[in-house]
Design goal:
The complex is a heterodimer of chains A (about 290) and B (about 600). Chain A is of the alpha/beta class. Chain A has 9 helices and 11 strands. The longest helix of chain A has 24 residues. Chain A starts with a helix and ends in a 5-residue tail after the last helix. With about 600 residues, chain B is of the alpha/beta class. Chain B has 12 helices and 33 strands. In chain B, the strands form 8 sheets. In chain B, strands 17-16-18-19-25-24-23-21 form an 8-stranded mixed β-sheet, covered by helices on one side. Chain B has a 5-stranded mixed β-sheet with strand order 6-5-4-7-8, with helices on both faces. Chain B has a 5-stranded mixed β-sheet with strand order 26-32-31-28-29, with no helix packed on it. The chains are: A alpha/beta (about 290), B alpha/beta (about 600). At the A-B interface, strand 9, strand 10 and helix 8 of A face strand 2 and helix 2 of B.
């Protein structure tokens, strides 16, 4: 990571779409009302409520018991899930780019006193590090990602479902992957969402995936399944591929929005600072 | 449509292997991609986009099969039968004689010939023969029309007479090699008109010959004769002018000596009349031209050329004790003056063009050419008879040695540079020696023991010997020309010039030709233009005039009979069943298909 970039991203923080309560206090507003200095609302007194929270001034004026409610400052659980399946390493630079994105987002979380968990998934949930708290844990985060290698195969949907089941604490789940899986890839994201996580999908695609420069009679070998496809690549087929890929990406983005998830496309040709400072801010992941 | 060679369809057996190879496909390079399912979807989409896209997948296969099928079709030679003109062999005989220059006859003939070539069915093979007094093959059999057309355009009329018989005989003999060959004659004459005795009017020729009628009557006046004879200090020149026109004509006759106009006369001729004009001229330039200034349709015969006979005579010294045969034969030679001296009275041989030594050994220091008759020999041998001669040597020209019988021949040894002219068995009887400018002819037998003096060969041999030894063609001799003129295309024997030294020939118009002259008996036959030909060898120069040589050529009203309808048909081709073959078109189509396959293949690559 470029020190200059680290210095710049220290100013950023992760934004959650839905606030939620957590056990530890943190920098993020929680939907759970508790005790703090920031007034939130009133509610009727019911038996068993703490008398200390009754607004006696209101009782003097209205002769009714109201409980005074305050917004509780909570600690945000941030899960950075990086896909290390074979497809991520099938295109030069794609896995490196994904690791750099994960490192940057993890570092931002640590800088904001969030509770960070880094996990790599392939066919299942693989190596993980965390929870980490505090900026000083950034080095460990980077070391974990640096040692991370790609796997021989992958099942992102299955791995995400397993991850959703394993994590009880709800939080912000950032999934970094190419999401190239025929048919079921969204099931994994959906499982995370259904588990109560705030989900943000970052789709990393290489330049040779977006604009392949293939021609002639070829046998295409799938990097994960090993399946082959004989094609004669010419202008019309390339155009059909671009249309198909665009449709696939657009469909993923639309599904994410429909399910209240965030989505951002991260082509490897896009400089990392641009992605962080521009694209992810526009998608309201960072602020 | 039928097939001439159905066995060609066996080529279709190549189709199954092609299909097999197509389905086996070529080895494809493997490329690792993150997800192949996107490509599979793209492929489905691309295929479903267009029916033609789906077709395109198999287009290469289809094109290959079509190409093989077309090649098989070509090999099986498909054809159809149709009634129409037949492509065959056509021999075009084009008359290039002088009369064809008149009134655009040659241009009309050429246009008709070009029309024949242009209208002939594809595949027709042509030959072009030109006819003058002899036949020339201008273009051998070829189906290259551009070559034939170019040859016809380059042809032009020559200043020669007409003899169709040699050309038609040649064409007929060539046409017999091909059953369908036809002869098409482009001439202002009809076959047999120029030579009635020629057997060219046979049924075979009539069956093959076609001729368009291109002759048209024209008006002409010609200088029909030009002769010059020595008369006193100068020459008398006789010029005849003949009219072949049907109306009286008036003009001028000019006489030019070299570049100088020496005389002119008014010419008034009645219809088809003739008039002779006599001029008296002095010596000077030896080239005379009679030029007729009169409007008519043929210009070439308005000029006539001649070369004045050489002034003076050939002086021959006969050294003899008396030989009436020899003396008589020498005296009879034209333009030869004979001086006889007995050997004992001889003081000098200088001042003579030639010395003749009869039974006397010439002195060894004698300079100049000489004819030695029966040199003294200590021994003589009986000879076989008759003599056999070398017909190629100019001394033997027109000499029938077989009519000469010899009793005995001398025992003279022929030097290595000598050339035996006639032999009596193995023994040399007559031989010639030539070293540099010195020439010597030895007759090594006694005339009195031979019948040679009584033979017609003897005076001819003497004439040849005097011409060869002096280097002067005698008037009327075999080597010379009558009154300095020869007919066009007559070969001119150059034996009066020395062998081994190149001869430079200047043709009318100034074109110069150099003849290597490496052997004796050289002749010059490129005399198809009217005018004066100049032959130079070293410092020696001889001029010979050439004219048309055929008075009939000037009679343009003599156009022969019009061709019959059958004779005119040739230019349109014979109407028979013809076979139209299509293998060429099939090959071209196959080629086009293969090129398309190559294009599609590279477009897809």
């Amino acid at each position: 990571m470029d020190p200059e970039l680290l210095r710049r991203i220290e100013q950023l923080s992760l934004a959650v779409r839905r606030t939620r309560g957590n056990v530890f206090s943190g920098d993020h507003a929680s939907a759970r009302h508790g005790h703090s200095i920031e007034f939130a609302d009133y509610r009727n007194y019911s038996l068993g409520d703490d008398f200390r929270h009754i607004d006696w001034n209101a009782y003097g004026r209205l002769e009714k018991l109201f409980l005074k409610m305050f917004r509780e400052e909570t600690e945000l659980a941030v899960y950075v899930v990086i896909d290390r399946s074979a497809s991520m390493d099938a295109v030069a630079g794609k896995f490196d780019y994904a690791r750099a994105v994960a490192a940057a987002l993890g570092y931002i979380a640590l800088c904001n006193c969030d509770r960070l968990l880094l996990a790599a998934v392939d066919r299942a949930v693989g190596a993980a590090v965390g929870p980490l708290r505090g900026k000083m844990r950034g080095l460990r985060c980077f070391e974990f990602l640096e040692r991370l290698t790609s796997a021989a195969d992958g099942d992102l949907a299955g791995a995400l479902e397993a991850f959703a089941r394993a994590r009880n604490r709800r939080g912000l789940c950032l999934v970094i992957s190419d999401f190239l899986q025929d048919g079921q890839v969204f099931d994994g994201l959906k499982a995370l969402r259904q588990a109560g996580h705030d989900v943000f999908a970052i789709q990393v695609l290489g330049e040779s995936e977006l604009h392949p420069e293939l021609a002639g009679d070829l046998r295409l070998v799938d990097s994960e399944t090993g399946a082959t496809q004989d094609v004669t690549v010419d202008g019309p087929l390339l155009e059909a591929y671009r249309v198909t890929l665009k449709g696939y990406v657009d469909e993923l983005a639309a599904q994410c929005r429909r399910w209240g998830m965030g989505y951002a496309l991260a082509p490897t040709s896009r400089p990392l600072p641009d992605l962080l400072m521009d694209a992810l801010r526009r998608e309201r992941l960072l602020r | 449509m039928a097939l001439l060679a159905p066995a060609g369809l066996w080529l279709l057996l190549l189709v199954p292997p092609i299909v097999l190879l197509y389905f086996m496909k070529l080895r494809r390079p493997e490329v690792r991609v993150p997800a192949s399912f996107l490509w599979a979807r793209a492929l489905r989409q691309a295929r479903s986009d267009s029916f033609f896209e789906r077709l395109r997948v198999n287009l290469l296969l289809i094109l290959q099969i079509v190409a093989v099928a077309l090649l098989a079709l070509a090999l099986s030679r498909p054809f159809t039968r149709a009634a129409g003109t037949v492509a065959g062999h056509v021999i075009l005989v084009v008359d290039r004689s002088a009369s064809m220059e008149a009134g655009g006859r040659f241009e009309a003939a050429r246009a008709r010939a070009l029309q024949t070539v242009g209208e002939a069915p594809p595949g027709t093979v042509f030959m072009v023969i030109s006819a003058t007094t002899r036949a020339r093959v201008e273009i051998p059999f070829t189906d290259d029309r551009s070559q034939v057309t170019r040859a016809l355009r380059e042809l032009g009329p020559l200043d020669t007479g007409t003899r169709l018989a040699p050309a038609l005989r040649l064409a007929l003999s060539l046409s017999r090699q091909f059953g369908d060959a036809e002869i098409e004659l482009f001439s202002d004459q009809a076959p047999g008109q120029d030579d009635e005795s020629d057997p060219m009017t046979g049924a075979d020729l009539a069956a093959r010959l076609r001729r368009p009628f291109i002759a048209r009557p024209a008006r002409n006046v010609a200088v029909s004769a030009l002769e010059a004879r020595p008369a006193g200090p100068g020459f008398d020149v006789l010029a005849s002018v003949t009219s072949f026109a049907d109306e009286p004509l008036r003009g001028y006759l000019e006489l030019h000596q070299g570049a100088r106009l020496v005389d002119a006369r008014t010419v008034e001729l009645p219809a088809r009349g003739r008039h002779d004009y006599i001029f008296k001229i002095a010596g000077g330039d030896d080239v005379l031209e009679a030029r007729l200034v009169l409007p008519d349709d043929l210009e070439v015969d308005n000029h006539a050329f001649t070369v004045l006979p050489r002034e003076g005579e050939t002086r021959v010294l006969l050294v003899s004790d008396g030989n009436p045969f020899l003396e008589k034969a020498l005296v009879l030679l034209p333009a030869v003056r004979v001086f006889r001296v007995a050997p004992r009275d001889l003081r000098t041989a200088a001042g003579y063009d030639l010395t003749v030594w009869d039974s006397v050994e010439p002195p060894p220091d004698l300079r100049g050419s000489r004819l030695v008759i029966h040199p003294p020999s200590p021994t003589e041998r009986p000879a076989a008879f008759p003599l056999s001669g070398d017909p190629a040597h100019p001394l033997s020209r027109f000499v029938d040695w077989s009519s000469v019988h010899v009793g005995r021949v001398g025992n003279t040894t022929v030097p290595s540079w000598g050339k035996v002219i006639a032999r009596a068995g193995p023994l040399p009887a007559v031989f010639a020696l030539e070293r540099g400018a010195l020439r010597e002819v030895v007759v090594d037998f006694d005339l009195f023991t031979s019948d040679a003096p009584l033979s017609p060969a003897f005076p001819i041999f003497l004439s040849n010997a005097v011409a060869w030894l002096t280097g002067r063609p005698l008037p009327g001799s075999a080597s010379g020309t009558a009154s300095g003129r020869v007919a066009a295309e007559t070969p001119i024997a150059l034996d009066f010039l020395r062998a081994g030294e190149p001869i430079e020939v200047t043709r009318p118009g100034g074109r110069v030709v150099t003849l290597p002259n490496k052997s004796v008996g050289l002749t010059f036959s490129d005399t198809d233009r009217q005018g004066v030909y100049t032959f130079r060898q070293g410092g020696r120069k001889t001029r010979i005039a050439v004219d048309i040589g055929d008075p009939a050529e000037s009679d343009l009203s003599r156009v022969g009979s019009p061709p019959s309808a059958a004779e005119t048909q040739a230019s349109r081709g014979a109407v028979r069943d013809r076979i139209n073959e299509y293998w060429g078109a099939a090959v071209l189509l196959a080629l086009a298909v293969l090129m398309g396959e190559w294009y599609v293949f590279h477009q897809r690559g």
